[in-house]
Amino acid sequence: MLNFRIQEQSVIASLEGTRRINGMISEMVKSEIIDFIEKSGKQVVLDLNGVSFVDTQGFSALKAIAELAKANERLFSLANCSDDVLELVELVEMRESFSIGKN
Locate the STAS domain: which residues (predicted)? Predict the structure, then answer.
């Protein structure tokens, strides 16, 4: 479900086969991205192209990733966020938790 493209300075993670980050996949997303942060030493960008919904468990996983990245002096950012996801980020007051890029 997660695909990774390794570039010089970063790892681009993208979701396939889902439009949601919810309780069903949030732990998998968290563990796989954290594994890349710890092993690669690179910054990680989560490409949310096509994702239209993130639930509280999804945001909890994303926040845990961001906190671990910061503790390891790495950047974790979200890219290609839809208006719906940006609205949810604002709603749960997590705008300051991530570096975020819109479509």
Answer: 26-103
